[in-house]
Design a protein that fits this description.
This protein has about 160 residues and is an alpha/beta fold. The chain has 6 helices and 5 strands. Strands 3-2-1-4-5 form a 5-stranded parallel sheet, sandwiched between helices. One of its GO terms (biological process) is coenzyme A biosynthetic process.
């Protein structure tokens, strides 16, 4: 069984993330969505809320693709999380050249820690490439329309969380 790990904070999960999950599902039998606890980022949503949104959105994708998709919170090194879930590949999404520089360094470090785990880069469809959770939260905070960036469930959760 080929297992992939797609890590991130997912605060909140966006259509860009969902596009990467859909594409990654074609490459593996099981896709683990590694939900980083990452207290340093000060997420808007609690870990439990982020996991619940991911599970709700990925249930539909799992049915459509036939790939098992599960959420897995983690707070350790990414490479250790990959080992914990039995992943042979780490899936990373790229939006722009700026992402590549950071990801390139991360791949080098991960390969030094465990050369048996490959990293695969996927780009979201062009219409989703500019979407970033940070910007979605900012638009929502300022009362803007985020419906083209997130699912209706996530939009509703953003409004609830922000009192909008």
């Amino acid at each position: 069984m080929r297992i992939g790990l797609y890590p991130g904070t997912f605060d909140p999960i966006t259509l860009g993330h969902i596009d990467i999950i859909r594409r990654a599902s074609a490459l593996v039998d099981k896709l683990v969505i590694g939900v980083a606890i990452n207290r340093d980022k000060g997420p808007l949503f609690s870990l439990e809320e982020r996991v619940a949104m991911i599970e709700a959105e990925c249930a539909k994708l799992s049915e459509q693709t036939g790939t098992e998709i599960v959420a897995h919170p983690f707070e350790n090194l990414l490479i250790d999380c990959a080992r914990d879930v039995g992943a042979q590949i780490i899936v990373r999404g790229l939006r722009a050249v700026a992402d590549f520089e950071y990801e390139f360094q991360m791949v080098g470090m991960n390969r030094a820690l465990d050369s048996s785990i490959e990293t695969v880069f996927l780009m979201a469809e062009a219409r989703h490439q500019a979407i970033a959770s940070k910007l979605v939260k900012e638009i929502a905070r300022l009362g803007g329309d985020v419906s083209t960036f997130v699912t209706p469930l996530v939009e509703s959760e953003l409004r609830r969380q922000l009192g909008k």
